[in-house]
């Protein structure tokens, strides 16, 4: 039955496989059935790995509304909050209803080309670059107001949770996860007499739409990377970014402390 099935989505390295076997043993003893991979008939998705495993599971499930929680066998581990040592405590807390479910707003990206219009979603970030990695020129509009032209390697649009990933490496700010914002971070912007733009990232409230207009040239093939998944477009006219009303549900047993994670991972 649906209420007794739990999805397990795990990396395939030896350590993660050991943790998966332990998890399956505990779940079976507690009377749960498990499904390796994604099943729509489950009540919970458990990922085993790092942030990549968590994000991959979310995307492969097509942003399922079934709650997600991760067991961290990776390195950084911002999304998976359960340590392998706390498997039994986690299952006990889950079995007794000692948890909360927190919605996480997705980034919505609407791509408009000469031939199509389609939407792409991401949890962490969306990166816009040229496929050939040459300099790209991008006009940035916020709430229909032209702000700047970014010339450089591209730009990152990140969510609050994604602010600690690629955006931070590019000089962006850390944003507390409960804030519903988008952050625009330029990638290696060119700063000269010919090209000028803001050197800092920009944090945009959820009611504002961000529009990006690339330079219109026939040799442009622009690539969009949504949580690492690549989409390529010819003749792109513009891209719209929004804080989506669409969410995923992240289950928490109360052990996740953002500031502790920041301190442990970066300091």
What is the residue-averaged pLDDT?
Answer: 92
**What is the percentage of strand-forming residues?**
35-45%
The beta-strand count equals 16
Count of the separate structural domains: 2
Shape label: elongated
Radius of gyration: 20 Å
Main-sheet strand order equals: 6-5-16-13-8-9
Top CATH class of the largest domain: Mainly Beta
Q: How can the largest sheet be summarized?
A: 6 strands, antiparallel
Protein topology:
Blueprint: E1 5-10, H1 14-29, E2 33-36, E3 44-49, H2 51-60, E4 68-72, H3 87-95, E5 100-113, E6 117-122, E7 125-130, E8 136-142, E9 145-152, E10 154-158, H4 166-169, E11 182-187, E12 202-204, E13 210-214, E14 221-226, E15 229-234, E16 236-252, H5 258-266
Parallel strand pairs: 1-2, 1-3, 3-4
Antiparallel strand pairs: 5-6, 5-16, 7-10, 7-14, 8-9, 8-13, 10-11, 11-12, 13-16, 14-15
What would you say this structure looks like, in words?
The protein is α+β, with helices and mostly antiparallel strands and 267 residues long. It has two domains: 97 residues, Probable inorganic polyphosphate/atp-NAD kinase, domain 1 (Rossmann fold), CATH 3.40.50.10330; 141 residues, Sandwich (Tumour Suppressor Smad4). Helices cover 18% and strands 41% of the residues. The strands form three sheets. A six-stranded antiparallel β-sheet has the order 6-5-16-13-8-9, with no helix packed on it. The chain has a six-stranded antiparallel β-sheet with strand order 12-11-10-7-14-15, with no helix packed on it. A four-stranded parallel β-sheet has the order 2-1-3-4, sandwiched between helices. A hairpin with a 3-residue loop joins strand 5 and strand 6. It is elongated and about 65 Å long. It starts with a strand and ends with a helix. 37% of the residues are buried. The mean pLDDT is 92.
């Amino acid at each position: 039955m649906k209420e007794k099935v739990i999805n397990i989505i795990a990396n395939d390295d030896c350590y993660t496989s050991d943790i998966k076997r332990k998890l399956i043993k505990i779940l079976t003893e507690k009377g749960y059935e498990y499904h390796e991979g994604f099943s729509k008939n489950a009540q919970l998705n458990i990922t085993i790995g790092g942030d990549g495993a968590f994000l991959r599971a979310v995307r492969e499930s097509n942003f399922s509304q079934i709650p997600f929680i991760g067991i961290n066998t990776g390195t950084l581990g911002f999304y998976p909050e359960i340590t392998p040592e706390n498997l039994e405590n986690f299952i006990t807390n889950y079995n007794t209803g000692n948890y909360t479910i927190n919605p996480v707003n997705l980034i919505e990206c609407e791509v408009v080309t000469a031939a199509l219009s389609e939407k792409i979603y991401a949890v962490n970030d969306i990166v816009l670059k040229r496929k050939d990695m040459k300099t790209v020129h991008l006009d940035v509009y916020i709430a229909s107001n032209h702000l700047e032209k970014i010339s450089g390697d591209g730009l990152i649009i990140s969510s609050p949770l994604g602010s600690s990933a690629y955006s931070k490496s590019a000089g962006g700010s850390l944003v507390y996860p409960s804030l519903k914002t988008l952050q625009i971070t330029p990638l290696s912007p060119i700063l000269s007499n010919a090209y000028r733009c803001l050197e800092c990232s920009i944090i945009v409230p959820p009611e504002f739409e961000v529009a990006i207009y690339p330079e219109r040239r026939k040799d442009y093939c622009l690539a969009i990377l949504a949580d690492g998944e690549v989409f390529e477009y010819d003749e792109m006219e513009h891209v719209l970014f929004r804080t989506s009303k669409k969410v995923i549900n992240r289950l928490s047993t109360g052990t996740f402390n953002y500031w502790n994670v920041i301190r442990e991972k970066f300091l």
